[in-house]
Structure formats: structure tokens, C-alpha cells
Amino acid sequence: MQTTSITEDRDAPVNTAQLRRAWRERILTWIMPITMLIIAFGLWEYLVWYHEIPKYLIPAPSLIAETLIKDGPSLMASSWFTIKLTFFSLGLAIIGGVLLGALFALSRPVELSLFPFAVILQVTPVVAIAPLILIYVDSTFAALLICAWIVAFFPILSNTVIGLRSADHNLSDLFTMYRVSPWQRLRYLLAPSALPYFMAALKVAGGLALIGAVVAEFVAGAAGQHTGLASRIIESSFRSEIPRMFAALVLVSLLGIVIFLLTSWASRKVLGHWHESEVRREH
Amino acid sequence: MNNDPIIRLTRVSKKFGQSMLAVDDISLEIGEGEFITFLGPSGCGKSTALKMIAGLLPVTAGTIEITPQTVVSEQDLGFVFQEPTLMPWATVFDNVYLPLRLAGLKRSDVEPRVNGILKDVGLTRFGGSYPRELSGGMKMRVSIARALVTRPRILLMDEPFAALDEMTRSKLNDDVVRLANENKLTVIFVTHSVFESVYLSTRIIIMAARPGRLVADMPMQRPWPPRDEWRTTPEFMAEARKVSETLKGTLNANDIDH
Predict the structure, then answer these.
(1) Could you report the per-residue pLDDT of A32-56, keeping only the tens digit for each?
(2) Of the partner residues A174, A180, A188, the one whose CB lies closest to the CB of residue B85
(3) Which value does ipTM take for this structure?
(4) Does domain B5-71+154-255 have CATH number 3.40.50.300?
(5) What's the pLDDT tens digit per position in B13-60?
(6) Is A179 in the B-facing interface, judged by CB distances under 8 Å?
(7) Which residues in chain A are contacts of B55 at CB distance < 8 A?
(8) Helix, coil or strand: residue A281
(9) From CA B14, how far away is CA A179, in angstroms rounded?
(10) Where in chain B is the domain with CATH 3.40.50.300?
């Protein structure tokens, strides 16, 4: 009986403290960043107004917002182009990285013979290869896609290889004892073991695919047959339309944030119930 | 108990690399229904011997025979590792279901069987939990349930309770004895605890290190399965002392630091 009452006594204050902590956590994760952003934009608006900074140097946030609305339709079309480019290249990077990673993990000779090529692709700056690719590939979209793919592909490949090799040795022995087929081993042991590594790579590759898309568009800018956000930035810069430059920049940032949120959400969804990196600890 | 051996080791040796002799010339016969423990200091090759019996390690010399009608498929052999060795991404149910799933059995067909074994190890309410939500002892129970769900005839256990606290360990010892008795299992249990080996076994195989070899084969003269109270009797202490002294005799000067 005594034990029960002690537990109850202890439970009550712990719960209030927990609630308070949860509330504070919510404030920290949502209200703090939003407040800080509002303050920063407010300060920016004020400083531009107070010092009468001309709009071709630094436009005020209100003007950027106005441009976003005014040029909305054409900017949206450009955004759509960049979104397509980024997600296509990310998709191809996932498919290529995972398939090649699986091949590397299964066969040491294949890994040893192909890995140098993967490294060369990774360490050569995409800006340096892009002009060549633009010459060799007819379709500009395809050329841009290849550039963005090169950048996003490597983290997926290397993490998939590490992940597939990181299965617990005893579990692996157990699978051997049960005389499983290679497919069963992949499906029930290797793939789930590789998942945390893959999700980490996905977060990195998502950002890199966007960077690759933007850089490739910059390089291809002169061709002028496409209307991605990056070429809008260059075009606006040529015409000294600084507010539109900022507007396009805002859209690029927003796209980056959306990708980050999406990949983080996917990671939490997939690993949240078991992997240490995504499990919320109760205090 | 049937006296025909179902596992026979003949002059089995295991070398790692060029010079490391982990197991040196072990011959041993194990009869059906026996509860055997391999007892010895670390490095005496007891886990290596067990893994060779399980077919996880090839022998360097000698032969290991398991009577064919005893082991007709991988399902007839259960193995419990030193660590629980569970899949952290799968629920308790799915971890236990794994060997059956790998054998191609449908979940709906074996659900009662998996739930039955979970009940046997006292985890009825935890089928939907993930391993990280369980205590060390509970994880070990899941591991045992997984080894037993295929209804094996031979159960191999590699120091399964070494990392657990004393109370959990003796509770699980009782559970293993009960399950072995109920399912008429032949058990080979590796441990470095004298008390554990005396309590559990029908026969203790004492091994020495460097090189790993068999030094004593001690059948236990008492009724099996043991009762919990037996742990506190003078007979138990006398047996433990006898085993302990035999074990001490096998330690040479090199082993004292372990």
C-alpha cells in the first residue's frame, strides 16, 4: 500500500513538470524561429527606409513581397521548372545510388573497379563539367538533370554501401543459420539496417540536388532556352532588376526549406519508432 | 532420456589464422534430452565449439555429426546469442515470427503459435513493443522465444545471461529449465558461471584455455529438472565446490590475469 502512495505522490509533480517542458519545447521549436524572422525582416525594412537605401542596392522586404505577387505567374513557372529539375535529379540519384550501392555491397571487385569513377564524379566541381555536358547533350533539361544528379548521387551511394555493410554480425549469423536466400537477407536484414544511413544521405542529397540544379542553370544561363529560378536571377541581374532577383532568391530558399522539411519528415516517419537518431526521449 | 548420442564431436579442432588454436582436439557425445553446459574461463573456446556445432563456423579438423533424423532442416536447431540480437526495427512479434517468415510461413497461419511462445516466455502483452522499450531480461526472453518458435529439438545457448543481473538471471534459468523440460529439448549451454552450470545441467563439460580443450566431463548426480529451492541446499553448494575446484585445477599461471 505504501509503495502505491509513494508512486502516486511522485507522479503528480513529474507530470506537471513534463507538461511545462513540453510547452517550452513547443515554444522553442515554433515561436522562437518565427519571432526571430519577423524581427529580422522588420529591422531590414526599417534600416532600408531609415537610410533611404535605393531599391537597386537592397530592396525592402515589402518591395520583394510586392514583386513576388506582381511577377507571380512567371516566377511560378520558373519555380516549377526548378522543382521538376531538383526532384527528378534527386529521384535519379536515389535510384542510381541505391542500385549501385547494392551492387558495391554485394561485390567487392565491382566496388573496387567502379569506385574511382564515382569519386572522380564527386570531387570534380560540377561547374567545371557542366559546360561539357551542355555541349554533348542536346536537351538542356537533360543536361541540367545530369549536372544536378552528379552532385546528389554520391552521398546516397556511399551511405548505401556503408549501411548495407553495417548489419549486426550476430543477426547475420542467425540468417545464415536459417539458410536464407540472398533476396531474403536483403529484404529482412540488410535493407532495414541500411535505412538510417540512407535517410541521412537523403537529407544531404536533397539539398545538394537543389544546389546542383541552380549551379547547372547558372552555367547554362547563356543558352537561354529555359526558365528556371537560377536563370531568372541571372536575367534580373543583367537588367538590374534587383527586387526580382531577391524574389527569385526567396523562392529558391523556400524550395530548399521545403526539401529539408520533407526529407526530415520522411526520416522521422521511417525511423521514428526504432532508431536512436529519431526517437524522442522522455525526460 | 535416450542414451544414443544425437550429437557427436570427433577430434574437433579450430584454428583462427595460422597459429591461434581456439579449440584443440575435442571429442564428445551428447545424448537426446541432455542439458549440457560448457563451462570455462574466457578464451577456452566454448563459444567457438558451440558455433561449430551450429554450423556457423567451419571446423579446421575433425567431424561434427548430428543424427540426421534429429536435424532435418534449419528449423530443428535453435540458437540464442550472448546479446539478445534482435532487429531493432521490428516489433517483438515480428522478431519472434522471423524464423517462420524466412521459412515461408504466412503470418496469419502462425499467429497463434507466435503468441503461444510469447506467453510461454511471459511476454503476452509485449507483442507490439519494440526492443528498445524492453529491459535486458525481456529482450533475452524475446531472443529465447525466437529460438523456440520453430520447435527445435536442439537448443544452443551462448552465454545468454552473462550481462543480466543476478535476479533476472536465476528467473531466466528457471524458465529455460522449464521450457527445455516441456519441449523435450537437448540443450547445450555455454557459461562461465559455476552456479549457473551446476543448477542447470545434467552434465558439465569443463574446458581450459590456450589452447581451448576439454578437461573434465562431470555428469550431475541429481534429479532433473531442478527445483528453485535446490539453490540454497548444502548439496548444491557441495556440487558447486566440486565443480569450482575442478575448474581451478585447469587454470594455469597464464590464465590468472583473466
Answers:
(1) 889 999 999 999 999 989 998 888 8
(2) A174
(3) 0.86
(4) yes
(5) 999 888 888 899 999 999 989 999 999 888 888 999 999 999 889 999
(6) yes
(7) 177
(8) coil
(9) 23
(10) 5-71+154-255
